[in-house]
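Section 3.1 - Work completed
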Amino acid sequence: MERVIAHADLDAFYASVEQLDNPALRGKPVIVGGSSTRGVVTSASYEARKFGVRSAMPSVQAHKLCPHGIFVRGRMRRYVEISRIVREAFESFSPIVEPLSLDEAFIDLSGTDRLFGNALEAGAALKQCVLSRTGLVVSVGIAPTKMAAKILSDLSKPDGLLVLTASELRPFLQPLPVERLWGVGRVTLQRMHRLGITTIGDLARHEVTALQNEFGSLGPHLHELANGRDRRSVLADWQRKSYGEESTFEHDLELSSLELQRVLIAHGEAVGRRLRADRVRARSVTLKLKLARPLGGGRYPLATRSTTLDAPTDDGAAISRAAIKLLDRVTTRDRVRLAGIQVHQLQRDQQMQLPLFDSAGLESRAGRLNRALDEVVRRFGENAITRGLVHAERAAPTRRIK
């Protein structure tokens, strides 16, 4: 049986939600993100994209490209709420759904033709289901492989649907730019071009041994993808490999400043809430800092430090303490323009081994406190209560790392 894999991606998700909730914004160039000189675009409506505005673009540049753009602060809680409804819509078509982020997912539609018809009919029904439940449009690509489905959904934006069969796969891939493939980033692309590889077809025809010598194990993997061979299945029991929160500041912060510590505490608390909501715990913590030392081309040096905890945790306070302690391992006189926390080595609650000793009940007290905090946040929002902190001035909404 030929695999039928769909990739569904909501169009300009954050901006579309803002237009959905505020009819006055519909048809107008909406830019979600900070509007200050240090702001970053998180999402842009298609009306704004016509002027060249894109996600991750500095807000200053977005202002120049689209002077009449309407800047809106992000509302992550609302985006999560809509994302859950969309996920339920996807799961009404197949139990095998692999979410990639709040606004996109792979869906295995193999063997569902008796329920929803052929791939084209199923894709159209999926789009209509999301529209009727949320009022939002979703672009869908359907192919025998995950990679091709993802490419198709990108090409079908906005509000499109493209379907590819197995016999059409290689002819479709051959003329596409090689950077369409997963794993071909800026540096890899430059090396590809030096080898004369500019299209996926060029890569497919290149000698595997030469690719192995140039790119290591990535070379043969990319060669397989270029030839339409992608054996990866849609993983229904998909599990995040990491959780993270980061934000860019309105003003650069000193590495030793109390305000930077406050930011890390806020990020640690947010990551802890997300871990508890998904019933997982993390064993390692990574501190990410973007230093205020321009390298040219809008680039800045990154400093990262990691540590492994004695035991997995979902406690935001413990995560924050670990991140703040990692500041001592950063030796630089540069100020900081972005700070973030990521956690890794995740374990589900049911995989946890209970500690031999209870440390005088400290864990249980922390657990009760966290549950109380979670309930307050659920009812009144993420800014309703903090651990005695003042929120640092942000140049853009806090970003959740995919």
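Second construct:
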Amino acid sequence: MQVQPLDIVVVGGGAFGAASALELAERGHHVTVLDRTASPHPDASSTDISKMIRMDYGADVFYHELAEASLDVWEAWNADWPRALYHPEGFLVLSAREAEPGSFEFESERVLRERGYDPQHFDAEHLRSVWPVWNADRYPEGYVSPRGGWAESGAVVARLLKLGRGAGAGFVAGSFASLLEDGSRVSGVRYVAEDKSVRTLKADRVIVATGAWTPVLLPWLSDVLKPVAQPVVHYGVDDASRWQSPVFPPFAADMAGSGWYGFPALDDGRIKLGHHADGCVVDPEHRGTVSEDHLDLARVFLAESLPELADAPVVGTRVCLYSDSFDGDLWIGEDPERSGLIVAAGGSGHGFKFTPMIGKLVADTIERRENPWLHRFAWRSLAEPRQEAARMQH
């Protein structure tokens, strides 16, 4: 299908925006990225040291398959890029009770096996012998997902932006002010430039990919998208090698119950511990800090599950922002009331792993191409939320 090149403005240079700009520029469109900084903005959720890459989604085969397709590209990127930014170290899934049908752990392992993978199931004795830093008394069973790991998320976004520029995408530094609208059609954006002047960018299509800021910039979406704060803590260890794969792979510890997940140590000794819970709705510009109460809860988790880390010093904290959709699914589609406006948001704490597919999803939306994934992410109104295991790790 031949598509005429379009002038496209991408608002937001995080993972969704960078991937979309690269894909659209490679398809021959004239792309301009608008963001506050030319490099990954420090406040963006994707500007972090690590994000989990996994196929484990309980019984939700749709996300398993989308993650599988994304992994194909992650592996291709590793082969093509100067340095591998995806680390395929597996994914350790720990269950705090005997895994039963319907549980995240049981269903994830079942789907993996049904789709041809061979996750390594283990009991407490095996956990104690192979991964001795874990308190096996708390985790009677679990499995190792064979295909997954973690990615250097901030570095990935920087790489995508660089590739986008190489493919012809332009970049404008400034803050989004408003859409340019001609009746029911969006024809560009107004933005505040670095010199504080208000300027315009005309476009055939505008993509808003601003993560947690999306319902603030587009307030008519505030009933279906929420900016939600989630805490992250970094601990320091003296001997990083003792806390790296394969001895200490990326993990989820009773994820659906307690919400704890984490990553192996970086070479500088930093271990990242995250917590997936309901979070709290915040103003993205005033997200707050990680509370002392949460730090206390994290200490309890470490003391009970990873006792050697019980007294590890906190070397950093971060409040990560989710762009939560009401049903946990991504939000990628054209606004039915504003022709020419495409929104790519709703990562809901689990969107980064799909970065290799996001550009294709957005570009196919713009070019009105058939795409087997888009139906799940299409524009939709509030309804009874689907039961899903989507938002497990960011």
